[in-house]
Design a protein that fits this description.
Distance between the termini: 31 Å
Number of strands: 4
CATH topology of the largest domain: Muramoyl-pentapeptide Carboxypeptidase, domain 2
Radius of gyration: 15 Å
Number of helices: 4
Number of domains: 2
CATH architecture of the largest domain: 2-Layer Sandwich
Order of helices and strands: HHEHEHEE
Length: 140
């Protein structure tokens, strides 16, 4: 049975308890990795800069100050309402960004578990302007 490694567990520990519960169940049936839980303002600003003042493509519309991300804790030492979780492959490369089909299959599993746990969840793959396939956020 798949399980999170130390890094994924550490990142997931920075998320709301409902996200922790959800993904600790999901990983048992669909191997995955947690890329982000909580982000600092500085980390969010660095992501916002991509494709604007830095190299790369735009990956977020949240600048971390005027518009905060759900990855940012609402209070000091708080937990994130969002997690970036990706399907994991046993063989390298472990993350395959070009395999949309696997992301959509993974999303179906996550959404089924969220429904069974009565969690209101939003997936970044459903975003209108900028698809964010790893992104999951809890709606409270």
């Amino acid at each position: 049975m798949p399980a999170f490694g130390r890094t994924s567990n550490r990142r997931l520990d920075t998320c709301h308890p409902d996200l922790q519960r959800l993904f600790r169940e999901v990983v048992k049936v669909f191997d995955c990795s947690v890329l982000y839980g909580v982000r600092t303002t500085e980390e969010q600003q660095a992501l916002w800069a991509k494709g604007r003042t830095g190299p790369g493509e735009i990956v977020t519309y949240c600048d971390g100050i005027i518009k905060k991300s759900n990855h940012q804790a609402r209070e000091e030492g708080g937990l994130s309402l969002a997690a970036d979780v990706v399907p994991y492959y046993a063989e390298p490369p472990h993350i395959r960004w070009d395999d949309d089909t696997r992301f959509y299959r993974f999303a179906g599993v996550v959404e089924a578990y969220a429904w069974a746990m009565a969690l209101n969840l939003k997936w970044g793959g459903d975003f209108r302007r900028l698809k964010d396939l790893p992104h999951w956020e809890l709606i409270l």
